[in-house]
Amino acid sequence: LHFSHLCTRFLSELGAPFDLEGMQLFVSFSIGVALHPQDGSDAEALMLNANTALYEAKKAGHNLYRVFEPSMNVKLLHYVETCDALRQALEQQQFELHYQPQIDLHSGQVAGVEALIRWRRPGHGLIAPGAFIGIAEESGLIVPIGRWVLHEACRQAAQWQRAGWRPGRMAVNLSAIQFRQGVVEQDVRSALDASGLDPAALELELTESILLQHDEPLMAILAQWSARGIRLSIDDFGTGYSSLAYLKRMQVDRLKIDRSFITGLLHEDENQVIVRAMIQSARSLQLDTLAEGIEDPLVAEHLKALGCDGVQGFWYSEPLPAGELEQWLQRRAA
Ligand code: C2E
Ligand code: MG
Ligand code: MG
């Protein structure tokens, strides 16, 4: 096609550095294409659709072009509407946190809870994070949303401590976008200060993708959190590409073995081999392990025999609103 050749040529010509009084400047370009007559009969309609395609190109990365397709408008509309609704959700406090207990396999005690966000969206019921975290990340709204999560989780944990509840550590999920914008250190600090929570009662769940974009500032932040006693864990471990030795160097304390290895653990030889190897090598590096997604007590027993330190899953409890978690703790203690 003629225009695809043209786009590729534009991008490769423009990809070369520009010389600005001896300075080499790199600029990235994105191109959106709309074709007459199928994508619009007048200039206005064509520009509008080219812009939609441009937006898709930018989203896909740098130095790419995209050709308009009608489905792009549907996606864009969904994106724009969800962003508006998320902004409103922040203002009107439609988010809530549910807490899922984590069990220490050595003592059998509740060792902590993980805070998981929910969106009580008017007219839509309770929405799970899978349906909106992606858009929140793409739009950058995850930064103020993540800030709210940190504050609310620390506030709740401090309140439980003052009331004499012992749900253990509070684990909070962090998104890579919060790191990219460089505000996460400040957000953690102010959530701890505002709540008065002991930093040793806070755990931050990072993803392998956060650590793989490692640079000096990130290492400094992790070292500083670690020095304050904040525990660092790697969520969904095994789905990324990081090595254990590397995680250890980055001050990580704990691996959360991804649910995909745990489901069917008893029946799938391959997963048994992988999980055993993960636990053993984590151990030899003094890294703690917690298995996610336990739905069967036999799986927990098996993991205990393998030397896994902790478990979390529907078998023990689904994520619960604060009040229901208190009742759950009470029932368990009785
Ligand atoms: P995650 O951090 O790996 O959280 C575990 C997810 O597995 C939760 O889903 C939890 O409800 C579910 N789960 C727990 N036990 C079981 C089980 O036994 N079986 C099955 N099938 N599922 C189980 P949820 O709450 O829908 O959260 C999904 C993901 O959304 C989280 O995965 C996390 O990546 C993200 N997320 C949740 N809250 C936040 C947040 O506050 N900030 C950020 N950045 N991400 C969040
Ligand atoms: Mg998590
Ligand atoms: Mg996980």
Word description of this protein:
The protein has helices spanning 2-14, 43-60, 70-91, 133-139, 142-162, 176-180, 184-195, 208-212, 216-227, 244-249, 259-262, 269-284, 297-306, 322-333; strands spanning 18-20, 23-25, 30-33, 64-67, 95-104, 110-121, 125-127, 169-173, 202-206, 231-237, 254-257, 288-292, 310-312, 320-321. The protein is an alpha/beta fold and 334 residues long. Helix 5 (142-162) packs parallel to helix 7. The model has no long low-confidence stretch (mean pLDDT 93). Ligand C2E is lined by residues 100, 116-117, 128-130, 133, 142, 146, 149, 173-175, 235-236, 292-295, 312-314, 319.
Characteristics of this structure?
binds magnesium ion, binds ligand C2E, globular, 14 strands, 334 residues
What are the low-pLDDT stretches, counting only 5+ consecutive residues below 50?
none
Give the strand line-up of the largest sheet: 5-6-8-9-10-11-12-13
Strand content: 15-25%
Query: What gap, in angstroms, lies between the N and C termini?
Result: 72 Å
N-to-C SSE string, H for helix and E for strand: HEEEHEHEEEHHEHHEHHEHEHHEHEEH
Major β-sheet profile: 8 strands, mixed, barrel
Hetero compounds = ligand C2E, magnesium ion
The pLDDT mean sits at 93
Tally of separate helices: 14
The strand count comes to 14
Proportion of residues in helical segments: 40-55%
Quaternary class: single chain
Molecular shape = globular
The assigned structural class equals alpha/beta
- Rg estimate, integer Å: 24 Å
